[in-house]
Write a structure and sequence with these properties.
Chain B: It comes from Methylobacterium indicum. The complex is a heterodimer of chains A (about 190) and B (about 80). Chain A is mainly alpha-helical and about 190 residues long. Chain A is built from 7 helices and 3 strands. In chain A, helix 1 packs antiparallel against helix 3 and helix 3 crosses helix 5. The chains are: A mainly alpha (about 190), B alpha+beta (about 80).
Amino acid sequence: MSEIEGEVPPGRVVDALELVLQTPPFLRSPKLARFLRFVVEEELSGQGATIKAYTIATQALGRGPDFDPSLDPSVRVEAGRLRRALEDVYARHAEGLAVRIAIPVGGYRPRFGVLDAAPVAVEAVPDPVSGDLPPVPVSRPRPAVALSPRGEGAIIALLAGILLVLCIDLGLTVSARLAGGPSPTREIAVRGR
Amino acid sequence: MPRYFFDIMDSTQSVPDEAGLDCRDLDEAHRQARTLIVDAMTGPEATRIDWCAWRVEVRDEARSLLFTVPFPHPHA
């Protein structure tokens, strides 16, 4: 699953945001969910340039107006956790997500990218030990016609039968010619004269 | 995969980890702790934070302390 850079329609970003917020890492942490929703909505409303540690702390994380980002690393720490949570979502819970939301290191403004193929649901092959799904969802192209192994066997048997009939017919024709019999084609030609 | 929690603190402040992270093993948990440290020290705004006083306490799902990773000196 690769990412295509460029403008992403806001509606698709909002759809992706709502899906991301329903994934386990964000359900476990309301604080990270509020952080993500705040920065995405600010960016979409054209206020991305004003996203600072102070605005995140006071408007998303419930800190008071005395919050001092030069002495309190809370927002920096939560931003790091938010990046890890997003990585986890796109690695393990990306079913149906068509837009990637990322917060590049060194800032708080989100970046959006269209994923070229939304992954299909991971085939459930549970780990016998932990029961977890494989870490990376695999997107597989679907064949135009899906055949079961039984169906494939029937088609192979049918083709083999046709080939056998053709071989028998060819053998009979060749043996008839070798026996010196008149060829039907020549007989027709003689009659035609 | 087991879940680990990465509480970040100094002697007076603490930023507890609500969500935790699923990691394959202790080695990956250690790598994640170091990544969180680098992220925290690479913020967009200047700070007067004394990073040497900060550390990451890595805990298991029972919140038992497994190991601690100190923040490095900013100019190390």
